[in-house]
Design a protein that fits this description.
alpha+beta; Endonuclease III, domain 1; Nucleotidyltransferase, domain 5; SH3 type barrels; 5-stranded mixed β-sheet; 5-stranded antiparallel β-sheet; 19 helices; 40% helix; RNA-directed DNA polymerase
Length: 543
């Protein structure tokens, strides 16, 4: 009455909250329900009728899927731990599951019984598609728990796909330590050009190389070539070569022992293992082709190349090896011919090495190490031939192995070796503790009662622990209970168990009513408890 001017809300009419359901509404609801029941999902998916009939028959024989169908029809519990352990994998997709004519669907995907999965995987991989393509094909129409993982394992073990697989991924760059002195480490290799044999030796510090045409490439010719260069530049500490027969024979080994240098070999059919010598071979072949085309003396061209400064080095191979420029046909000042040690060569080489590794390792990945006795696939001759099964017999270093295949032993780089995978006999998605289950017909016909009994039988230990924790928490919610945390004694003298404590609290709750602040009476939950007579006896014993 003190309000002189009425506001808008005071004059706003109260909406009618009464809702009346008419016969038209009931009729519309029934029509929608009938339309939904008349939809047959199997008619809209890309699976043949014979396959659907097989799925239906196997679903009826599968205890897990029969139990799942019953749960779908009767309703899911509010928590996952109330389900049998065999149904746990379906919990995440429970809202998408449905049963249609005895077949379980996840959306438009057919849930495949365990007995048919191997057969369906073979059909999916019939054209030997890749792993990702096969998974996409399977997800188009099929579903079962951990399907992608099982497909990967089975496709990885396909023998045909493994033998015809592509090259492995590029591995990270691995190189020798950068030398500190000229002619400390040299690499040697042989090559053929225009049906003529050549031998090349290159210094890892200066990139200075020597090349010689020879009648043959036997161990005797190689030793003679090495002695000529050793007499001119000195004996290096290490010589690196490939695994050609003339390098691994006893004659060259005796020469290395007598001249006191270390001999290291790289894996056959892997040119990157002796990359410095391969680079020198490439340069030599280019010089030979260009000199032949332009009718130029090869030795004169080689002299000019040795005196040309290297990119990002500001010094020539002759300067880095002999600490001086060599005289050529070009005019040169006399003071430039004075010997002078080039500073910072090692640091410049380290910088170039790091930068090369950074660019090469962009798309590279490390391959796992192999152990002696592992079953592998190897390419005996390298290149793009078929992968052949074999066994690892020896390991030379972190990237070179001896593999025996078809009665022969080959030394190959890790790039040409890949692990051999086998198809698992039976793929188990997860260990399931199965107990005695009722027949499939009983699970489908009995409805909710059979499902509840199975859930009670197969409930895992976690559910019992949950009940125990509930009993333990109940004393804190009771205002009449004492706040003593010490364990109470049972009639037998031991500590009181959680079940007995819960029963004792339940009795107190029944004897004294508890009300909330608003005055509402608290109704305790129904729990198992002993009779009042037994409770009185136990109370007297404790006293």
């Amino acid at each position: 009455e003190k309000m002189l001017i009425a506001d808008i809300l005071s004059r706003l009419a109260i909406p009618d909250s009464s809702t009346t359901v008419t016969l038209d509404d009931v009729y519309k609801i029934d029509c929608v329900e009938n339309e939904l029941n008349s939809i047959n999902i199997s008619e809209n998916i890309n699976i043949g009728q014979s396959s659907m009939h097989r799925v239906k028959e196997e679903v009826a024989k599968d205890d897990t899927l029969c139990m799942l169908a019953s749960i779908i029809k009767t309703g899911w519990p509010d928590r996952k731990d109330k389900l049998p352990y065999s149904i746990h994998p379906f919990w995440e997709v429970k809202d998408e599951l449905s049963v249609q004519d005895g077949v379980i669907f996840r959306g438009n995907q057919v849930v495949v019984p365990r007995s048919l999965r191997t057969d369906f995987v073979k059909k999916i991989h019939l054209c030997h598609l890749g792993m990702n393509a096969s998974i996409r094909r399977a997800r188009d129409t099929l579903y079962w728990p951990f399907m992608a993982t099982e497909l990967k394992e089975r496709i990885r073990g396909c023998q045909v796909c493994q033998e015809l697989a592509e090259d492995q991924a590029k591995t990270p760059m691995k190189s020798h330590q950068v030398p500190y002195l000229p002619w400390e480490r040299v690499s040697i290799d042989t090559f053929e050009y225009n049906k003529q044999q050549f031998i090349v030796m290159v210094d890892s510090y200066s990139d200075f190389f020597e090349v010689k045409k020879t009648r043959d490439i036997t161990a005797k010719s190689l030793i003679s070539f090495c002695k000529e260069n050793f007499a001119r530049y000195g004996i290096p500490q290490t010589i690196i070569s490939d695994n050609a027969p003339q390098f691994v024979g006893s004659e060259f080994a005796t020469f290395a022992r007598q001249w006191e240098f270390n001999h290291s070999t790289s894996s056959p059919m892997y040119s990157k293992g002796n990359g410095k010598a391969e680079s020198a071979v490439k340069i030599t072949k280019k010089l030979l082709k260009k000199c032949e085309r332009d009718n130029i003396d090869f030795q004169a061209a080689l002299l000019e190349w040795r005196n040309s400064p290297t990119s990002e080095m500001d010094s020539s191979p002759s300067q880095r090896l002999m600490a001086r420029r060599t005289r050529t046909t070009l005019p040169i000042a006399r003071k430039l011919l004075v010997p002078e040690v080039v500073p910072g060569v090692h640091d410049s080489l380290e910088y170039k090495r790091r930068r090369s590794k950074m660019f090469q390792d962009r798309n590279a990945r490390c391959l796992p190490d192999l152990q002696i006795g592992d079953e592998v696939l190897v390419r005996p001759s390298g290149g793009h031939e078929r992968w052949t099964p074999g066994t690892v017999d020896n390991r030379h270093n972190e990237s070179s192995y001896d593999v025996t295949t078809e009665g022969k032993t080959y030394r190959r780089n890790r790039t040409w070796i890949r692990p051999l995978h086998h198809i698992p006999e039976e793929y188990n998605d997860r260990p399931i503790a199965r107990k005695s289950l009722p027949p499939a017909s009983e699970s489908l016909d009995n409805g909710s009662s059979s499902v509840k009994e199975q859930i009670q039988e197969e409930a895992p230990a976690s559910s019992s622990s949950t009940v125990t924790s509930t009993h333990k928490k109940s004393p804190s919610n009771n205002d009449n209970s004492p706040k003593d945390k010490s364990p109470k004694k049972s009639p037998s003298g031991g500590p009181k168990g959680p079940q007995q404590a819960g029963n004792h609290i339940a009795q107190k709750k029944h004897t004294a009513d508890v009300h909330t602040k608003a005055g509402r009476k608290v109704k305790p939950p129904c729990r198992f408890s002993f009779s009042n007579k037994e409770f009185t006896k136990k109370k007297l014993k404790r006293k």
